[in-house]
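Subject: Protein record for review, amino acid sequence with backbone structure tokens
Concerning: The relation between a protein's sequence and the shape of its backbone.
How to read it: Take the token row as a discrete description of the fold.
Enclosed: The protein record, placed directly beneath this head.
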Amino acid sequence: MKNKRGIIKTLLLAGILVMTCHIMTCHIMSSHMVRVYAAQPESGADMEQERTDLADGEYSIEVTLSGGSGRATVVSPAVMTVADGMATARIEWSSPNYDYMLVNGEKYLPINAEGNSVFSIPVLCFDSEMQVTADTTAMSVPHEIEYTLVFDGASAAVLSSEAADTAAEGFDLRLMFLIVLAVMSAAAVAAYAQYKR
């Protein structure tokens, strides 16, 4: 009788461990999903930069360019950096002739000295059109051209971040729970086998 009660207790404990592992895994995975908030365009020239709930770090993100003559392109995916809920993107043009960009009324200069023009600009919104101006020196006189950038929030992928480090720690925790679960299950099976004898 005592053996039977011991087996029942062991099986109940194993069941509790299974539920605990499941809950912990779901919590860890859901808390580190990549999420962004999409900003809604405002009337007028200026937009307030939308905050994101992405963890501080670097991400790759798909960006689409439209406007101008249609000949210019930007590198996609772009590298995006998040710090304190604000995102900035590294925009690399297909030409070395852009000498500045205007974003939300602010002027940004290239961050490189050689090769195609590269700028670090704020990401004002995700999944919505973001108006920018780029000045090109490719013509006989410098000329400002209006463009639109759209950052695809769903495409954001972690390159390096605090979230990735925490997720790795979470994986170690899940592994420990699974090992404990395996040991307890083996013990329950052994106890049941002993009872049957």
